[in-house]
Amino acid sequence: MARLPYLRTGLLAAALLLAACGQDSGGEVPAIGARLPRVALAGLTGEAPTSTDALRGTPLVINFWATWCLPCRDEMPALERLSHRLATHGVRVIGIAVDNDRYLAAEFVRAHKLTFPIYADGDGKQLQSLLHVKSLPETVLVSADGAIAARIVGARDWNGADGARLLERAFDVRLASAR
Fold first, then answer.
1. Is residue 177 part of a domain?
2. Which of 118, 133, 136, 163 is most buried, judging by how many CB atoms fall within 10 Å of its CB?
3. What confidence tens digit (pLDDT) does each residue in 20-40 have?
């Protein structure tokens, strides 16, 4: 009988820990055609806070990255060039920094003179979690109506022919290779 209070305490602690984990999106990666989840995003380097709902209406290239991820850092110059190329087609490139240290990520953005909007996913990594982004970098292409059009795991040469084909299919635009 002396174990009963410990068992109750253990069960209560387990229940509280499970509740603290937040809402699970079902354990499945959102499929192509699924809606981009509703999430608030904090500006990283002066961008006004926004939400994924506020971004609806514009096709998006959403790149998840971190400063500690070498392929992410290597991909950033290509994403910067891509943001300028796609702007003429009405497509926005945004970054989602998943670093635990927002200041380190902000300093990286400033040091590399990145001009496309970059947001922090916050301590809970809510968007990363809801989209089940497990590897970095990962890029999610989202249509203007908020549907996921494609997911690309790993760094890409966004200025080459392969990158252009991916974007052309997802956004029904015509891009020439930047080379």
1. no
2. 118
3. 333 333 467 888 999 999 999
pTM: 0.81
For 148, the enclosing helix (H) or strand (E) is strand 148-153
First-last CA distance in the chain: 75
Q: Is residue 146 part of a domain?
A: yes
Q: Can you tell me the distance from the alpha carbon of 9 to that of 12, in angstroms, rounded to the nearest whole number?
A: 5
Residue 149 lies in a domain: yes
- Asked, for residue 109, whether it belongs to a domain, the answer is yes
Q: Are 138 and 64 within 8 A, CB to CB?
A: yes
Q: How many CA atoms lie within 13 A of 77 on its CB side?
A: 5
Please choose, from the candidates 119, 115, 57, the residue with its C-alpha nearest in 3D space to the C-alpha of residue 82: 115
C-beta atoms surrounding 155 within 10 Å: 22
Q: For residue range 93-139, what is the model confidence (pLDDT) as tens digits?
A: 999 999 999 999 999 999 999 999 999 986 678 899 999 999 999 99
d(CA 113, CA 57): 27
User: Which CATH number do you get for residue 105?
Assistant: 3.40.30.10
Domain extent for 148: 30-171
Of 116, 67, 71, 126, nearest to 95 by C-alpha is: 116
